[in-house]
Amino acid sequence: MANLFLRRALSYNQFRTLHKTAIKYNAPVPITFNMYKNQQKFREVQAEVLNTLMSSPRFEHQLIDVEHWMTKIQAYLLTVDDIVDASQTRRGKECWYLHSDVGLGAVNDCGLLLTCAVEVMDLYFGKEPIFSDLIKTTNRMLLQTSIGQYLDCSSGYSKEKNNLDKFTMELFNSIAYQKTGIYSFKFPMLLALTLVKDGKNKYSEEAQKIAWDLGRLLQFQNDYKDVFVDDMNTGKVGTDIQEGKLTWFAVTALQRCTEEQRSIFKENYGSDNPEQVKRIKQLFDELEMEKVYKESESELYDDLVRRIKALPTKGETQFYLEILEACCKHLY
Length: 332
Prior knowledge:
By secondary structure, the chain is mainly α. 69% of the residues lie in helices and 1% in strands. It has helices at residues 2-24, 39-53, 63-84, 105-125, 131-154, 169-194, 205-228, 231-234, 240-243, 248-256, 259-268, 274-286, 289-309, 314-327; strands at 89-90, 93-94. The radius of gyration is 21 Å and the shape is globular.
């Protein structure tokens, strides 16, 4: 038993070293909102909700371990996202995989982040009856998020594929929920409720729908920042147009296009040629996409506030209202 604990402790220490290295080079840690100014706010919300929902005092001293475990899982997901999207920067610094001494070794680092996170959870909860539920909840989230990542990667437009028929709001909503909504909003709540007796039965159907719409909100906020906000403010160079991504802006623009404008979109979208990228941005301006976006964001925000306040439990209401504030602070 002592040897087993030692091995796990060593794994944990190695993981902490890897994690600190990743932070140093700005591999993503917790998910961020509103141009990454609310990182601490999001961590505080997660911790507060977990603390509120934990009914057993014996879990209180492990709260920080649960919170950190969640951020390690998110670090894994966002590091993978940077590799898959061929991103250049994350939070204003070069992505982890682009460092000359890392390269594709970042793929293995992702595996280390994920498996060591599970080891940490095993170390603290391995003997608890809820351990299998924690693992199942996490694995289900990873599966759904990976499906969302696949849909995001496989639905991009290029002239060669000529696949604008895939650019539907239905597919965008599915990607937003699978890739963003589940691990950002649904997963933290399910994880906390797993630590409470009969907790999963307290997660209402309406709360799940709210998680869906929060994922949609966050995704089209990300789409907006990719096109309209300078990378000095977002910390990430926008590449959605160049990669031909299925975004809220692309789908909505196509719904508003004339036949002539649609031809311009088909000719220029999905190219890394600066002039073609510029032409797409001009098209977005012609279609008043920034105005349409702000109206849609405000409308969704008002709807979410109304629905969140009507949730049956205080914990759900508190969690989602504070997350919504972090997402939409500029609307307050």
